[in-house]
Amino acid sequence: MMSYEFYLLLACLVLLIVLLVRQASLTHRQENAGLKQEHDLAVLGNQLLDELDAQRDDSVSALQSANQNLLATMSQMGQNQTTLLESMQRQVLLSTRNQEEKITALRLENERQLDEMRRTVDQRLSESLDKKLDASFAQVSERLESVYKGLGEMHTLAAGVGDLKKVLTNVKTRGIWGEMQLGSLIRQALAPGQYEENVAVVPGSAERVEFAIRLPDRSGGTVWLAVDSKFPQEDYIRLVETSQAGDAAGAESARKALMQRLRAEAKKIASKYISPPYTADFAVMFLPVEGLYSEAIQSPELVETIQSADRVVLAGPGTFSAMLNALQMGFRTMAIEQRSGEVWKLLGEIKTDFSRFAETLEATRHRLEQAGETIDSAVSRTRTIRRKLSGLENLPEPAALQEPGESPNPEDRPE
User: Fold this and answer.
1) For residue 301, is it within any domain?
2) What percent of the chain has pLDDT over 90?
3) Fewest Cβ atoms nearer than 10 Å: which of 24, 78, 94, 403?
């Protein structure tokens, strides 16, 4: 047992010695290889340094040669550029001198043309200004003459207005003027058969209204719409003068007097010209001046009282014209309605006649059908007779059928 361990230990020692010897040999080999590599690297480095030195010398020589060539080229280019610049400078100087000469000539030519244009413009402006001044003076002279004529016409018109004022101070003349204006408006808007002048609208009354308009009623007849013209000039002029003078108290007093006068005239119109069923249940008071009408409608209480209590409608020239236009449209609408009624009546008669015509046409159709049947029957009989006659044409002659010595018997003849 002990010898076996000894041998095993001895074997391990031997193996260990072998391994150490091999390791020492391997280490020696590696050292030799490292030295050899270092020697080879040193030799290779020396070779590379020699080659780099040779290349550097070649590069330096090439660079020096290229630098000399480049310097020579740059020197030549500098000389060429200097020559070119000198040539260009000479050309620029020559061109500048030519341009300056051309500019000088052009400036002189422009100055000459401008002088000519200035003289032409001055001449034309002078001529145009003279013509315009002459025309303006002529127009001013004509306008002054027109102004002088207008002043003369204004003096004449002022005299005429004074005469008109004197005329209008007469109550009768003032009433005639209002009637004329009222009549002009009515004649322009209505047909002659739609109104009457100076008519007694109430039967048996002696009062005659200036104008009365025919209005249709529901029964198919007509009633009168009385239109009376009123012009309380004194009260109106007093109101205008006090208003222009700035007299408030006087203007208020004149306005009250004017309202009272209009109310009194409305009562007169209501009592004289409103009498249903002969007249309409209202009348119209025509005020021939718009200013007077404007003053009247500035008092709503007066307008409402006159309309509700007296059944009188106030109307100025513009308002009355609109009223007449509305009445005319109403007349036209009524005429259209009447004509529509006549058309409907005529259509009813036409409908009745058309029904009769339809009955007559139906009877005619039956008769035509009967006549057609009769004709068809006659045609059939004609065809039958024709067939029979065609059969007779094929029979022998009567002389060929008789015996000698016999006379033909009429009863034996075919029908």
Assistant:
1) yes
2) 0
3) 403
**Measured between alpha carbons, how far is residue 63 from residues 55, 56, 60, 66, 215 in Å?**
12, 10, 5, 5, 133
Domain count across the chain: 1
Contacts with 35 (C-beta within 8 Å, 6 or more apart), sequence order:
none
| Cα separations in angstroms, 291 against 181, 233, 298, 315 | 15, 11, 11, 12
Q: Which two tokens stand for residue 392?
A: 């007779």
**Amino acid residing at 103:** I
What is the maximum alpha-carbon separation in the chain? 205
Read off the tokens for 208: 């005659």
Q: Is 249 domain-assigned? A: yes
Structural domain includes residue 184 = yes
**pLDDT tens figures, 96-118:** 888 888 888 888 888 888 888 88
309 with 315: CB under 8 angstroms? no
Instruction: Count Cα atoms within 13 angstroms, Cβ side, for 56.
Output: 6
Beta bridge partners of 214: 224
pTM of the predicted model over 0.90: no
> Is 146 within a domain?
no
Across all residues in the chain, what is the average pLDDT? 76
Alpha carbon distances (Å) from 79 to 34, 88, 91: 65, 14, 18
Domain containing 259: what range? Answer: 177-326
pLDDT in tens, 219-263: 667 788 888 888 787 777 788 888 888 888 888 888 888 888 888
Does the pLDDT at position 410 exceed 50?
Answer: no
Amino acid code (one letter) for 69:
N
